[in-house]
Amino acid sequence: MSARGPRSRRARELLVVAGFTALMAAPFLGQALVSDEPSNLAAAEHILKDPLHPYAFRYAWFGRELPFDQTSNNPPLYHYLLAAARGAVGRGEFALRLAMLPLSIAAALSLYLIAERFLAEPLLPVLVVTAGPAWALNLEHLMGEQGAAAFGLAGLAALLSALDDGPPALFWLSALLLDASLLCKYHAALFLPPAAAWAWSRSVKPARLAAYLAVAGAGLALYLAADARFGGVAFSGARETMAFVARFPTSALSHRARALLAFAGGCGAAASLWPLRARRPSLAAATAALAAAAVLFSPPLDLAPGPNSLDRMTGIAFAAAALWAYAVVWTQRRRPGGVLWTAWAASATAFSAAYWSVTTRVELFVLPPLALASAAALETGVGARERRRLYALSLAATAALTLALGIVDRHFADAQKEFAARLKADYLDKGRRVWYTGGMALGDELSRAGGQGLDAARGGWDLARPGDAVVVARINSAGLRPAHPIRARVTAEILDEPIPLRLISAGESEAGFYSSVWGFLPFALSLEPLEEFTIVEPLGDGAR
């Protein structure tokens, strides 16, 4: 084949990857803000007012108003990028997500450039990864993982090229890209071990490798030094966050271990099962993975109360798939790319485990090495035609699952915005005060409509007077509970969803897509209420 042939194929496949990424994101670009998106947007909007002090404002979170850098301790590069988009296109969700979509597309393109160096047919495996719920849903959200993935994967791709056939300048450009990734999220440091391991395996001299890592961490080091010099709380804020969540029962080691494996297996099950067809590793290893998963999800390791039987069996299946995928990575460690996959999977898993809770937006970085190692194993044992058929089936099933989960997530997010609009019309526009407890999307919508957050430091629920309304969302880990019984009129509105999938649960299942605080599964088969909004109106007789 001529040199032009491979270049032409690469160009076509890169276009397919870019188009597919945009296609998967398109149905959800206009959904209301969800999860931590409001806090990221709050930082971006403050930067437009005071670009030299990105976090010098107060924000309602954890049931009280705090300095922002105590509620979201991340470096500010992504927030500056989001601020630029906010200034250019306004605050509309569709316009903002569309403006930030190039970051997600860049991440997918970089993943393809990495995969093509080790796989004969990289396109379909890459599409399966980018179609998965952890990748497709998180990387269209306005959160720092967008930037971390775009810069981090581009940095790895540039390093591979620099050490193979690229110009020497690519080596240092790779370090700068990894530095940019770190300036979006601290846990983007997960890219450094695989980069170092690959460079070492390619005989990069120790002094040059040390200089590379110094460049890759220089921007973050300067930021942290400046933060400390001017009285910031980057370190203490992170410590306080970890101390806060350590009080949750879900911080138990057994629960976090379950979530780590279930999130990886549930969001990447299709790819992790590919090597079963090639019988690499052996079926005995698959049996061992299933047995280990059964032990991890056995009743003695349950929190109280324990999960229902369906969630337990789902967790065992997801965890077994993940353990199998890790076994595949281990068997590929001496094959082309094996050093990269092994170091990458180990590093990403470690950073996901060390995060304040297990979340799919961090766990998504575990999935590429698991999937690409599985594809490499498949290429050594299965013919091209059968392999493509397996990839196509995996892609169809993965995309269908992601779209179904995306529809449920959009319904959940849009309901927050719609409920806030009704409260504005029924209460705020009639001169009545509306309070909310906790942050997240509902609190953000109410705050912009004129509502106020209950603040434990100023009296908490005692701030609400007769004639006021306090709004409580059932799914809200940052909510503030009353310090004493109150006499009030209480009404509730239940949000149902016919698709039997849940990304977050308030107790009836183990769905915890956005945080293992909610459960050890990335999503659950359930028909429980999607959300429940409660309006509490204090009565005027003063009784408690």
Could you characterize what this model shows?
The chain has 544 residues and is α/β, with parallel strands linked by helices. It has three domains: 13-244, no CATH class; 248-382, no CATH class; 408-538, no CATH class. The chain is built from 21 helices and nine strands. The chain has helices at 4-25, 37-49, 68-71, 77-89, 93-115, 123-131, 133-138, 145-164, 169-182, 192-201, 206-229, 234-246, 253-272, 274-278, 283-296, 309-331, 338-354, 360-363, 367-379, 384-426, 440-449, and strands spanning 58-61, 64-67, 434-436, 452-453, 469-473, 488-495, 501-502, 524-525, 531-538. The strands form three sheets. A five-stranded mixed beta sheet has the order 4-3-5-9-6, with helices on one face. Strands 1-2 form a two-stranded antiparallel sheet. Strands 7-8 form a two-stranded antiparallel ribbon. Strand 3, helix 21 and strand 4 (452-453) form a beta-alpha-beta unit. Helix 1 packs antiparallel against helix 5 (93-115), helix 2 (37-49) packs across helix 4 and helix 10 runs antiparallel to helix 17 (338-354). The longest helix is centred in the C-terminal third of the chain and has 43 residues, at 384-426. The protein is globular. The chain starts with a helix and ends in a 6-residue tail after the last strand.
Can you lay out the helices and strands and say which pair or pack?
Elements: H1 4-25, H2 37-49, E1 58-61, E2 64-67, H3 68-71, H4 77-89, H5 93-115, H6 123-131, H7 133-138, H8 145-164, H9 169-182, H10 192-201, H11 206-229, H12 234-246, H13 253-272, H14 274-278, H15 283-296, H16 309-331, H17 338-354, H18 360-363, H19 367-379, H20 384-426, E3 434-436, H21 440-449, E4 452-453, E5 469-473, E6 488-495, E7 501-502, E8 524-525, E9 531-538
Parallel strand pairs: 3-4, 3-5
Antiparallel strand pairs: 1-2, 5-9, 6-9, 7-8
Helix pairs in contact: 1-5, 1-6, 2-4, 4-5, 5-6, 5-8, 6-20, 8-9, 8-10, 9-11, 10-11, 10-17, 13-16, 13-19, 15-16, 16-17, 16-19, 17-19, 20-21
